[in-house]
Amino acid sequence: MSQDQPDYEVGYGKPPKATRFKKGQSGNPRGRPRKQPKDVAAHMAELLAENRTVRVDGKPVRMSGEELIARRLMEKALKGDPKAFDKVHQLKAQHTAEEARRLAREENKIVVELVHAAIPEEECYKKPGERIDYHADGTPSVIERWDGYLPDDVEGADGDS
Questions:
Q1: Can you give the pTM of this predicted structure?
Q2: I need a surface site. Which of 65, 129, 147, 155 has the fewest CB within 10 A?
Q3: How far apart are CA 125 and CA 50, in angstroms?
Q4: Which of residues 1 and 4 earns the better pLDDT score?
Q5: Which of 78, 56, 58 is nearest to 67 (CA)?
């Protein structure tokens, strides 16, 4: 038989002999990687995220471990436990500080308000590298120039000006 024609039918589930794995050779030589053990923090995060069914006022309610801990801590504080009371106030202060930081970040956002100016754009930008701002009465207030600045789309940008 010639090299072009195999001595068996090649098809689904029957790859050519030249492309098959050799005896003793695996398609995955290193094997499946071992499962990495979780650390304590990962276990705690899983447990706190789990939903549990508890009774609140005689009715079954589903809540996460975090909600359950907060509820129990609050119940202990209301019963007069001084450590629980201090912890509730500490957590409240922490939450208030985080909320204040979040609000401060929102307040510091820059808001750009576009206002229709009575001055045409050509007047504001006299030539490349120069900017002139005007007062309400039309007198120039700020004149800025940048030496050596010429955009690519302006004639003379290659130094011919």
A1: 0.43
A2: 147
A3: 62
A4: 4
A5: 56
Distance (Å, whole) CA 59 – CA 55? 5
Mapped onto helix, strand or coil, the DSSP state of residue 52 is strand
Residues 9, 11: Cα–Cα separation, whole Å = 6
**DSSP symbols for 99-118:** HHHHHHHHHTS--------S
CB 91 within 8 A of CB 77: no
How many CB atoms are closer than 10 A to CB 54? 13
The neighbouring-strand residues paired with 54 are: 61
Q: Assess contact for 64 and 51: CB atoms under 8 A.
A: yes
Identify any residues that bridge with 134 across adjacent strands, giving them in sequence order: 140
User: Smallest Cα–Cα separation from 119: which of 147, 93, 139?
Assistant: 139
Written as six digits, the tokens of 70 are 């907060």
Mean pLDDT of 4-26: 78
